[in-house]
Write a structure and sequence with these properties.
Structural class: alpha+beta
Oligomer: single chain
Bound molecules: coenzyme A
CATH class: Alpha Beta
Order of helices and strands: EHHHEEHHEHEHEE
Helix content: 40-55%
CATH topology: Aminopeptidase
Strand content: 15-25%
Shape: globular
CATH architecture: 3-Layer(aba) Sandwich
Length: 205
Amino acid sequence: MLDPRRLYPEGTESRALAEVLALAFRDNPLNRAVIGGSEARRLRANRAGMRASLIAALPAAVVLIAPEGRGAHDQSVLGGLIAMEPGQWPLSPPPWGEQIRLLMGQGWRTARRWGEVFEVLRESHPVEPHCYLSLVGIRPDHQGRGYGAGLVAHWLEGVDRQGCAAYLETDRPELLAFYGRFGFAQAGSTKLFGIPIWRLWRPAR
Ligand SMILES: CC(C)(COP(=O)(O)OP(=O)(O)OC[C@H]1O[C@@H](n2cnc3c(N)ncnc32)[C@H](O)[C@@H]1OP(=O)(O)O)[C@@H](O)C(=O)NCCC(=O)NCCS
């Protein structure tokens, strides 16, 4: 049974979440296309990217975790979700020191290619007010057990309480049905580094 918690400060749990998200996205089509190379290389680049994303997100965004245990001090994490409320996107970049660490962790080529991805996604980002699901990922050895659906459902409860529309992008065609069950419908698609990306919209309820 999932009992999501909201994650606040930078600490052990956020490092654990960065690790889990790095692993969750390691084999996604866009990750393979942008970073390329071995699993170890993609994991290394993702660690740097997820760490920087969390540092940028934690002061403002919604960061939910699926904790492994039930104890309040349990710091192991099965997965997590990063989302933004209306007007919060795009987040301010992380501090300079963190950006340098990101560049060193990802490598210049990968950092530049992710920059191109975010630029294209930024151009098609909806202008209507909405809540934005930036990332959701579950540790691969725990996928398919309902944790991802639990996090998305928990996030959407908050979205609906605000009467907010919702938006996300995905590079996995098999997730169109997953998000469709939550009321998301296709709002267009684009190709990035040869990989189709679907944009999904859920009207306010
Ligand atoms: C997408 C993700 C968060 C879903 O979390 P999860 O805990 O694995 O999913 P759930 O167990 O809640 O699955 C819910 C449903 O989606 C389906 N599903 C999830 N991932 C799937 C996949 N890769 N292929 C096919 N079906 C999938 C499940 O079969 C399940 O369907 P069912 O309810 O009919 O059995 C997780 O698989 C993940 O981390 N994927 C890699 C990162 C990613 O792509 N994140 C989403 C980016 S938008």
